Amino acid sequence: MNNHLYGMEEGAGADKERMISIVQASGNEKLSVAEKALLWERIAAGMVQPPVSHWWHSWWRVAAAVVMLLSAGLGWWQWQRPHEPLPALVAYAAGQTYSNGDTTVTRMILGNQQQLNIHNSHAAIAYQASGTQLKIDSQQIRQELAADRPVFNTLLVPYGNVASLQLEDGTKVWLNAGSRLVYPAAFGQQQREVFLEGEAYFDVAADAHRPFSVYADDMKIAVLGTAFNISAYHDETASQVVLASGSVRLEAFRGPGKKGAPVELSPGTRALYTGKNGNMTVDKVDVAGFISWKDGVIIAEHTSLYEILRKLSRYYNQPITTDTRSGNETFSGNLDLQKTMNDVLDIIAATTSLKYEREGSTIIFKTK
């Protein structure tokens, strides 16, 4: 009997050492060995040894103790881990619940949550008088600003629409279909920051004293004065920045790519960023093919038909795709987006070996 009890005590001691080792192996080094041992003793003190015939009950208690140890250590580690605060603009944008896809009307959301519906599918917006006035097409809107904090406005451009925007500092932005831009009505004295979801072309007004930054996906694109295109749609596998003139500096401000070194682009180059794994690659491209959309044209040079149809889907707010046999087709030529959707699709069909058919609400290109 005594030998049996001694064996159980010895086994419990071994279990204790194993449990402490497990906790240490989990990366929880904020609790000392002594603190872990004390925590184990407190857990063990409340455990009543079950009869030998029900040995599995004790293993359930051991498992529960392990969970408690791991949870305690994890909670301590999370409490001690420093959290870098997001920029106020990004935090504000992350807290929004507006969707680009729940309307066909372009919307301006002012800082006081007043919503302005813009029925022009090619809206033109310009800020004046240091951000206190904005002109939407021919309509003048006055906006009150706060003296002690920035006032963020939001422009939501749904599929089927595009918009142009002149910010308070003179920077011009062209927003493609299915995009959201969050920005201050008036920039501060030290920096100019905006948040983008979707695609936009920026022509940044030079200001050496106030760098201009765009937050898109997990990237931060910093410039002084330049022209570049950003595409950062949620349904794309990668975001991309194409530089037309000047120079930009890219870095990940959060996510897996944060540990990577910043990347500087020169004109005629593109950066591809995959936020899922933090990879960033740079290559040379023909800039015209990436920025022509702002002038109502798609310029393609042996471009994947699938990629072109995705752009047309957004622009015309119509699901358009290809079947599996036609997925590798390419297209070269210019597509005038001022024409009707059927005219554009007819051009694609006439210059490829494909035809298109409507199946339900989707248009599908197929081999003839």
UniProtKB/TrEMBL annotation:
<dbReference type="InterPro" id="IPR006860">
    <property type="entry name" value="FecR"/>
</dbReference>
<dbReference type="Pfam" id="PF04773">
    <property type="entry name" value="FecR"/>
</dbReference>
<feature type="domain" description="FecR protein">
    <location>
        <begin position="160"/>
        <end position="249"/>
    </location>
</feature>
<protein>
    <submittedName>
        <fullName>FecR domain-containing protein</fullName>
    </submittedName>
</protein>
<dbReference type="InterPro" id="IPR032508">
    <property type="entry name" value="FecR_C"/>
</dbReference>
<dbReference type="InterPro" id="IPR012373">
    <property type="entry name" value="Ferrdict_sens_TM"/>
</dbReference>
<feature type="domain" description="Protein FecR C-terminal">
    <location>
        <begin position="299"/>
        <end position="364"/>
    </location>
</feature>
<dbReference type="Pfam" id="PF16344">
    <property type="entry name" value="FecR_C"/>
</dbReference>
